[in-house]
Structure prediction request, 269 residues.
Amino acid sequence: MNANVYTKTGPLVCAENVSLQYGTKTILRDINFCIHDIHRPNMEQGQVVSLIGRSGIGKTQLFKVLSGLIQPTQGVVKIDTDQHPVRAGEVGIVPQNYILFNHRTIYHNLKIGLDNAAVKLTDAEKKSIITDYAETFQLTEHLQKYPAQLSGGQRQRVSIIQQVLTGNKFILLDEPFSGLDVLMIDRVIQLLVKVSTLQEQNTLIIVSHDIENAAAISDTVWVLGCEDGKEGATIKHEYDLCAMGYAWQPEVRKEPGFQDLIANIKSLL
Ligand SMILES: Nc1ncnc2c1ncn2[C@@H]1O[C@H](COP(=O)(O)OP(=O)(O)OP(=O)(O)O)[C@@H](O)[C@H]1O
Prediction:
């Protein structure tokens, strides 16, 4: 399929003039963006956006604002097709330390996702869904284990799937590649690509220091940084990887110009 055939329609997640201050200190300033629903022929194409920025610049704070966990000092974050102001709980969060319930099996940890879903299901329906997901994401043999018996990468996969099962279309992931070896990173990448193509409106926002892996699966990259003489971080640059021809290409790292793109992003940090 020609990866270049796509259209963008209505807004799904937008920030309008978002600023965040603690006392007199400005952390975030004039954040404006809009993630639009991307369509590609004959497939469910979700959205994947990476948020890149130096340590301490304000990524976590923006993350919290986007998820409705903290209110911005000014501005608003709007989500979904009706563009209502985001409420806490509407956006799934996969934190860096992927917290699971340690005294419950993986099966029960996943069931918690379904128990919290908006649609109420019978236990038999839940079992069937969990079995299917475990199969798809190579966790079947681990369902009766406890989180402590899984590797970091496996726990992270459970944490991501748990969020998918809640039915959240919008999922924020904090440093999904950190602390994983190269093979595990590949697995997470495959998982994120799969999640982003499960449903048309699924939208992943990835906060990462790992520019190359994040960009390789994104359709958009935002660079969060400070502009000369102004306090507070803002989105200094937005890269539209669909328009640049780098989106949805499994072998994008080998594409001419991709490594230059990574260098260009680094130069803005
Ligand atoms: N509750 C708070 N009160 C005052 N300042 C805060 C508060 N929380 C965070 N900050 C400041 O906000 C700034 C941004 O922090 P944030 O955690 O968002 O950075 P980050 O980009 O996520 O960093 P890292 O990549 O290291 O996790 C920092 O200067 C931090 O000291």
User: Anything to note?
Assistant: The pocket of adenosine-5'-triphosphate is lined by residues 22, 27, 53, 55-61 (CB under 6 Å). The chain has eight helices and ten strands. Residues 65 and 125 are 34 Å apart (CA to CA).
